[in-house]
Amino acid sequence: MTSVQQHHPRVPAFDAVVIGAGFSGLYMLHRLREAGFSARAYEAGDGVGGVWYWNRYPGARCDSDSIYYNYTFSDELIQEWTWSSRYPEQPEILRYLNFVADKFDLRRDIQFETRVTSAHYDEGQNRWNIQLDDGSSVSATYFISGVGCLSAANIPIFKGLESFKGDWYHTGHWPHEPVDFKGKRVGVIGNGSSGVQSIPVIAQEAAHLTVFQRTPQYTIPARNHPYDPDFIEQTKKNFGEIKQKMWDSWGGIPVAPSMRSALEDTPEERQAKYDAAWAKGGFSLSYSYSDLTFNEAANDTVAEFIREKIRETVHNPEVAQKLLPRYYFGTKRPILDTHYFETYNRENVTLVDVKQTPIEEITPNGLRTTEAEHELDILVFATGYDGMTGPLLKIDIRGKNGVTLKEKWEDGAQTRTYLGIANAGFPNFFMITGPESPSVLTTMPLAIEQHVEWIADCLCYLRDHRIDKIEATEEAEETWSKHCSEIAESTLYTKTDSWYTGANIAGKPRRFLIYLGGFGVYRKICDDIAAKGYEGFSLL
Ligand code: N01
Question: Closest by alpha carbon to 483, among 440, 516, 434?
């Protein structure tokens, strides 16, 4: 029995408590158990899957090649699971995560339909006291967040939403039963990845679809296709080699980055390269040259290439004009689509530019802009997320001296972490893919695996060396944060309003919270820090 159980006999005590049962929580739980720690994961949904549990909107699918969008830690798992296509739909990804949960018998240590509402560090006991929304509490030596980067939905405050007589949904909280759009007048607000994936599918079913667009986006054809069985066989056979390339890569995909500037090629050479990438689909266009996210002139070559594709695809020149993006390509998350721009050639689709004619209010019968009232039966919010910090700040997390994470990160302060894993002032608290790690700019499952393995190894080290407490130092945190900002400021990423910079959330401090030095480099930094006895942490 632990000291906590002696003091509070009815409070269950674990070595580690994990929030979430998505890609992060599932693997964390597995590693903790393998290493002999007692662990419990808490999950708000009634099943595993995380974002893939919640994002059931029409057209939801993966935008990384699925052969790389899975766990790599178990060769047995690689051999046993076969993806149907390059970019499978949400139900298949959810099936995969259920398969993993079954294979490793994870469910017995997950409490579903339970939200962690607060986690307070008790300095005297050196334990985390964790409150759950069913009124109960638990305690743990280690508190580990697997809440993900994009799980706090952003539903902008529009006057009159409560008066709307139709049904409305956010893409990230889609019902389990399919929504019937047949014969309905549907409005979609937002055209990021979620909007771009759902708009073509909804348009096929709805009587009429009105898209309310604030910022036109670059999107690239996904060119999804079923996988050739020979390709799958070769991939499985050579996965060890592929995995090594993924681990050494910039973003988790085993492709060698281009070393050539877009400005070194002639316009004809560039056109040929961009055409080939466009035909191939996926993110190959982003990898065409080395300087697309650094150099404005280089960026403009690819931006103009996509604008031309939009002009060619969309028949009505006025509509095409409204769809032309003007920000630096790649500085918002690039989007992959299936017939997105073609959808605007449909008779039942209208595009409304809400920058020109802003939304004034939602009315009982629809939505009114400064120009017109649009009658709607269903309204879809594809309005995104309070990214990176949002999911963590929804929980009342308090470290030493009762300081909240919100106070540390947002209230007059600056978001700072050490490696995106730890925080000064919050001992024994770990974040999987936290702010200032490569996270969302890496294939997520790979970024997650690297963090989970680093954290699990760290906990074993603490146990082996009889260390009770690990905490990032202020100096290490400051150096890391400065390093992250310096890299970001040398790119074009920080010049665009996006969820990357927090600019999509009113009042959120603007910071670019993703490490841009590349996954391979980051992994070596983390390994090096561990090899030096957890340099930058105080161990007590
Ligand atoms: O959200 P977004 P998302 N009035 O923030 C608009 C991942 N993901 O859910 O650009 C009017 O990108 C907003 O307009 P603007 C992926 O990493 C992956 O689509 O801010 N419009 C924008 O158009 C992705 O990047 C997949 O001017 C408003 C849209 O809503 C991330 O999740 C699938 C508004 C929000 O776009 C987020 O994508 C889905 C307002 N008040 C998501 N507020 C995969 O394929 C916001 N908007 C794996």
Answer: 516
